[in-house]
Design goal:
Elements (H helix, E strand, L loop, with lengths): L6 E5 L6 H14 L6 E5 L2 H11 L4 E5 L16 H6 L4 E4 L2 H4 L6 H13 L3 E6 L3 H5 L3 H12 L9 E5 L13 H18 L8 E4 L4 H8 L6 E4 L6 H10 L5
Parallel strand pairs: 1-2, 1-8, 2-3, 3-4, 4-5, 5-6, 6-7, 7-8
Helix pairs in contact: 1-2, 1-10, 5-7, 9-10
Bound molecules: 2-phosphoglycolic acid.
The site of 2-phosphoglycolic acid has 13 residues, from strand 8.
C-alpha cells in the first residue's frame, strides 16, 4: 500500500522519559486524521512499547530509530528488527547522520540493516545527506550517489521504503537549503531512484533538517517532496501538528 502524502515523521532522538513520551504520543494520536497524509513517530527504545500502547488503533506509525542487521546474537546494546516488530513497531530509521557521522556507521552496514528490517516486515526510512564541507565543495550529488550506491537495499519499493534527504549541516542548526535547492535535489533523487530500481520513482522522498512550522508549507509544496522528517520540532506536539497541517497547503 502506498503511503498517503504528505508523510510527516517525527524523530524524538534521545529525548523522553515514560511520562512525557506518553503525553506526547497521546497528543499526536489526538490530532492525526485518517484522511490526511501519514504520521509517524520514532521514540527511544525504552518507551517504544508504551507509545505503541498509547497510540492503540489510531493511524500513527510507530518506529525505532535504528536497528541491528541480525535477528539476534551477541551484540551488546543493539536492538534487532525482529525485536522492534515484537514491541509493536512497524517502521525503523536507518542511516541517520547521527549514526553515520556520529558513530561511524558505513554504507554497507546501513544496507544490511535496511535489508534485515525489510525482511522483518518493517517500513524502512533510509537517511542520506552531505556534510557542510561536502556541500561547500559542491560535492552534494556525488556524496548522495555514493550513499545510494552503498546503502540502498536491493529490494526497494515505494510501499516499504522511504528515503529521507537530510543535509547534515541543516540538522538541529536552524539552517536549511533554499527551496530551489530542495526542489532540485529531490527531483534529481527521484530520477536516481528510478534509474537504480524498478519502480524506484514511487519511493517517497522526505526532506529533513530544521523543519519548523514556519518553513514546512514551503518545503511540502515542492514537487518531489513527499513529506518531512522532523527532529527537534517533533518534541513539541503543537509544532508537530502545525507541520502536519501545513501539508494541507500542498498542491
Ligand atoms: P532537526 O532534526 O529537525 O532537529 O533538524 C532532523 C533529524 O535529525 O531528523
Amino acid at each position: 500500500m502506498p503511503l498517503a502524502r504528505p508523510i510527516v515523521f517525527g524523530n524524538w532522538k534521545m529525548y523522553g522519559l515514560r511520562a512525557d513520551s506518553r503525553a506526547r504520543a497521546e497528543a499526536v494520536a489526538g490530532f492525526v486524521r485518517a484522511d490526511h497524509g501519514t504520521v509517524g513517530i520514532f521514540p527511544p527504545f525504552t518507551v517504544l512499547r508504551e507509545v505503541v500502547e498509547v497510540v492503540g488503533e489510531r493511524p500513527v506509525v510507530v518506529g525505532g530509530q535504528d536497528c541491528h542487521d541480525r535477528p539476534e546474537g551477541a551484540f551488546t546494546g543493539s536492538i534487532s528488527p525482529v525485536m522492534l516488530r515484537d514491541a509493536g513497531a512497524t517502521a525503523v530509521i536507518v542511516g541517520h547522520s547521527e549514526r553515520r557521522h556520529g558513530l561511524g556507521e558505513d554504507d554497507a552496514f546501513i544496507r544490511r540493516k535496511a535489508e534485515a528490517a525489510l525482511a522483518a516486515g518493517l517500513l524502512v526510512v533510509l537517511c542520506i545527506g552531505e556534510t557542510e564541507a561536502e556541500y561547500l565543495a559542491g560535492r552534494r550529488h556525488e556524496v548522495l550517489e555514493r550513499q545510494l550506491e552503498g546503502s540502498l537495499p536491493t529490494a526497494a519499493d515505494g510501499g516499504r521504503l522511504v528515503i529521507a534527504y537530510e543535509p547534515v549541516w541543516a540538522i538541529g542548526t536552524g539552517r536549511t537549503p533554499t527551496l530551489e535547492e530542495i526542489r532540485e535535489i529531490h527531483g534529481w533523487l527521484r530520477q536516481e531512484l528510478a534509474r537504480r530500481r524498478p519502480g524506484g520513482s514511487d519511493i517517497p522522498l522526505l526532506y529533513g533538517g530544521s523543519v519548523k512550522p514556519a518553513n514546512a508549507a514551503g518545503i511540502l509544496a515542492q514537487p518531489d517532496v513527499d513529506g518531512v522528517l522532523v527532529g527537534g520540532a517533533s518534541l513539541d506536539p503543537e509544532a508537530f501538528r502545525a507541520i502536519y497541517e501545513a501539508g494541507d497547503a500542498r498542491r
